[in-house]
Amino acid sequence: MMTVGVCGPVDLKLLHWDIPKNSLPLTNTFPLTSYFVNALLKRGHEVIVYTNSPDITEPQVLKSGKLTVCVSREKKQPGRRFFNFEVEDLKRMIKAHPAEVISAFWTYEYALAALGSGIPTIVNIHDVALKILLKQFDPFRLVRWMMNYRVIRKSDVLVANSDYTYKQLSAATRAKTIVIPNFYPDELETIKAPGGTKGNYIVASSNGFTKRKNIHLALEAFQKARKKFPDVALHLVGVDMQKDGPANQYALSKGLANGVRFVGPLPNLKVLEEVAGAKVLVCPSMEESFGMALLEAMVVGTAVIGGEKSGFVPTLLDNGKAGILCDIYSPDSMADAITKLLGDEELRLNMEQTAQQFVRNNFSEEIVLRQHLALMYKLLSKTEPTPEKELIKPELESKKIEIY
């Protein structure tokens, strides 16, 4: 077994530990890193998490069983300082509480801190900074691209989260990169629609009302689809999707708010339940390096619609076998996909079942975690245990996601 460090944005409330949720500091969150930590703990490894919070004035160390969480500080407007304070504060915590190997998520401040610690580090690439900068050119994205450049240059071992991400990298970067896809935790398969029945709505989940996320065209598509299905609602979930938020204000200004429920941000479990209760999830994003919202919808049994040229989305939807692919730049094309699924229950049910089997075969926790662990053992030149010797604690294996 190893002592594994995980450096990145972590949702502390999703971790399998005994710390009361109401005592936890606010952190930057990315559910996948929490899934990753829980999966490592389930297999008997010691895990040290390195993350940060704008909520604290002094660093904190929290411990529960084989899990240690080191929370560093984050100051306001970090981009103006190139995240220098955040990197140094994280680095101090890493050196004070070292792991054997670190898996750093995203190619920015967390990776810079891990690489600066001197501990063997695997950097996980979850977006392509240059492509984001070109699509959304602003000072913050420029800073992020510069940080990404430093991380890529310093890294010896990189993991791309999809073939699509891998292909966007330079030849020199690809030479030190392998592909290990995102995954879903086993317990997501237990998530069902509240009451066990689908609601009469479709859903779109997006963190940000930006041109790249393309919610504005999804609103147009929904209004077109309502002409055939006037009783169906659209639920918008995520940052900027709340009542009176940017998406709501835009919809009102364009006459696109009819039938739309502006839900806004929700805890992770509530998002999953909202998606599980929908008849269809629409992902209008112009580009996804992977597409976690789509993956989670497929796991919980909701038919999905994604862009035919939206990064990894076509592959994630098995080239249209596990979901409907459409032209997300065209409201008419999106509307046609929505009405196709709403109007054909047999097609929708078949697509849900096909999608569940496809993701189980390709993106399950067991399949993907073994790839991560094999890479860590190789980096440390340690002998990897046989599958029979991997310890899976029964109490963690059966643990369900909790409401918070």
From TrEMBL:
Residues 35-184 form the Glycosyltransferase subfamily 4-like N-terminal domain. It comes from the Bacteria. InterPro entries: Glyco_trans_1, Glyco_trans_4-like_N. Coiled coil: none annotated. Residues 197-357 form the Glycosyl transferase family domain. PANTHER family: GLYCOSYLTRANSFERASE. This is Glycosyltransferase family 4 protein. It comes from Pontibacter populi.
